[in-house]
Design a protein that fits this description.
Strand order of the largest sheet: 1-7-4-3
Distance between the termini: 69 Å
Radius of gyration: 22 Å
Number of strands: 8
Shape: elongated
Number of domains: 2
Strand content: 25-35%
Largest sheet: 4 strands, mixed
Number of helices: 1
Helix content: 10-25%
Length: 151
């Protein structure tokens, strides 16, 4: 009886592992981290491990303000790495980043819109974490960083 139970359990374990899909993802730039999303046997996707780097593309349709999650200064304080939740391109594209600097604060406002060539495109409704880097005119120092979409 114990041998039959052990054999059945091993067979179920082997069958469960045999259905998992495999994928290999490579980055076009070896110095950048690779974000991979591999589906599970149930059909759900696993979230990406790191934000997807993006740059403003401009000239989007109906650009609007987007809230960001965090802004991390570089070691020298001259740049900010901004991270936010977004959608897939070309339906959700970073249009521009507005930076307003004062003696006491730095306000960063992200604008997203739809790419002009995406009028009749269907995009999946999935959240993607994105990141962009903005340059400051002066080092951040003790200035407060403010999300311009929250004001």
């Amino acid at each position: 009886m114990m041998t039959a139970t052990l054999a059945t359990g091993s067979l179920l374990l082997i069958m469960g592992c045999g259905n998992a899909p495999s994928a290999t993802t490579t980055s076009p730039n070896p110095s950048l981290p690779v974000a991979s999303s591999v589906g599970s046997a149930s059909g759900t996707a696993t979230p990406a491990t790191s934000p997807s780097p993006t740059r403003p593309k401009g000239h989007t349709l109906k650009p609007h303000k987007v809230r960001w999650l965090k802004a991390t200064p570089s070691a020298d304080g001259r740049k900010l790495k901004v991270v936010w939740w977004s959608g897939v391109e070309p339906c959700t594209v970073l249009d521009r980043v507005k930076v307003k600097e004062t003696a006491k604060s730095v306000t960063v406002t992200l604008y997203e819109g739809q790419a002009r060539n995406a009028r009749d495109v269907a995009c999946i409704d999935i959240a993607i974490q994105k990141t962009t880097t903005v340059k400051l005119k002066a080092p951040l120092g003790k200035r407060k960083v403010i999300d311009g979409a929250r004001h």
